[in-house]
Structures
1.
Amino acid sequence: MSNQIKHRKLGTEPLVGLYYVSECIKCGWIGSSGELTEDDAQCLQAVGDDHCWGDTDEIGADRLLELMQSGAFDKPATLLKSEPVAVLYADGAVLTKAECGNCFEICCKVETPLYAEQHAPVAVVLPFAEKVISKLRRFEECASDNQDVDIGRHWFDVLTQLGLLNRVQRSPAYWEMTQQGEDALEVARLNTPK
Ligand SMILES: [Zn+2]
């Protein structure tokens, strides 16, 4: 698996059912395996008039987080178009566009322009964290009612790799929430505005 690919594309399909997160070892695309060819899981990303046809690997939460943290994904197009919203002066002062008025464009050229998109990496990681918490919450709900837990096989693996669940029986498969999982839910509860 190459770490040299710098401009990765993120798949657009949500992860559902028995599909899993996959990485194309040729072009670096990351997404649901539902977007790959059905028979041999080859990459269908457009390359010119053809598809990439690269082989793909199933990846886990650890690899996904590593890629997100390395900033290897293409930024969404809307962020690329954004203009500076403020300017940072050498003495540490920050003036917004409105405060600078007519000279804002010149200020941006001679000082350091600031962009709203500089918060983007957090915004990209957050949906994943929210999804993890919602799956963990669903696990807790179902388990406390003695129902089958319907979060999908893949999510059992993700939550287990994150140390939030512990597989206590192999066949039939059976999981328990770890102390870390209970703590994560507690923190999420405390952070949820009432
Ligand atoms: Zn590919």
2.
Amino acid sequence: MDQITVDPLDRMVSDYTLVTNGYSGNAPANPYPMFEEQRARCPVMHGDLLKQHSIPSMADYMMTGRPTITLLRYKDIHAVLMDPENWQSYIVGDGFGAAVDNMLLTAMDGEEHDHIRALLQRPFIRSEIRKLIDTLIKPVLMQEFIEELRPRGKADLLRDLALPFPIRAMYQYFGFPHDKDLLQNLASWAIQVVAAPQTDPAVAAITIPQSMVAGQAMYDTVLPIVQAYRQRGDMRADILGHMMQVNDDGRTFSDEQIAAFIRMLLLAAGETTTRSIANMMVQLLENPDVLEEVRADRTLVPKAVIETMRRDPTAGAVARVAAKDMEIGGNAVAKGTAVLLSIASANRDPEVYEDPDRLWLKRPMRPLLSFGFGPHMCIGMHMALAEMEVALDAMLDLPNLRFDPAFPHPQIRGLNMRGPDAVPVLWDV
Ligand code: HEM
């Protein structure tokens, strides 16, 4: 009998769409009018906006019934993120921490968090990442994606670029061997771990055990890579090279510790950038005057990246829990209550952003919340920004880039992990 083989890229697209479905629940694809109404009426809302739409919420991934409030204003969310002593992060590990032996930076608090973060930080700082633009990010993008796509005159920017490119660039920076199957297996397992929390208990009964298997498979795959790297003894300027040499109070990390750190980073390393690239392109193609503005003046590329991430962020929400009785926005919050922070709502708060629905490259910027803020602010931010800038610059060189009218208009959807299912485009060749 013929074996049916699934193209690994198709498998990644289908895993990606499953995550989008999970985080869309029964929410409207465009949630911004709902946020606007809620923010004006009651910006400190009792209940969990995600759960209300049948979406797994990091405020209570395991559906324990933890009391939760949702914050919708920029200033309240900013205040919580800047006060990690009183608003803690450990609840975020409830959903899939078990699948990765609870090695999740995002779910650590206090000294433990700061210590581990400081040890991992160096290869992610802006100056290190900027060096990669010409040596890694641009060559990978141009040689493996753009040069192959350009003569075709058409593409699904999600499947053909936004999904495989950030993973490919990031994995090279980890120091992994260049092996397509390895890359796609790890990327799929990472998505399966993240997809563990589900609001439907029947679905969770499948996804939770599956996430445990995926988490173990990631570790079992990464450990021999770490061991081989060490045996080779050739330390390079990549993440593995850094982790092998970093000095933690006179000791270096063991291979097992490094494998656990790498697995943790892999969970966050690919899909978030994919979604951000796709959301950026949909917004720019929907606003051809803005697309033209940035095409004509490439110094605006970093602004276009930031402004599209503000206007429609993929990380729509994060969560914290009150370490003691607190007060926020004039409301008492009892110890143990979770707060769901709607970043997507904060990003369109008219108290902070003038004409917030407009895609406006020259708007006066405020500290961006789309990578979080405070001590947990995304460690991979500079890598993601560099990948997005390089990708946008290259796509602007595709003449007359436009939506392909043969396909339905892409719709960005979800209250978290927002993204479109596809971004079909045409350009002139
Ligand atoms: C555009 C792409 C990305 C977006 C939108 C994004 C978003 C976020 C957000 C919102 C947080 C804060 C979570 C919280 O405060 O609870 C975060 C943290 C984190 N991100 Fe990213 N991320 C992106 C790319 C990456 C990449 C490429 C990596 C990998 C290297 C990464 C690794 C992490 C890690 C390890 C944390 C936890 C940091 C800590 O707790 O100290 N992210 N990210």
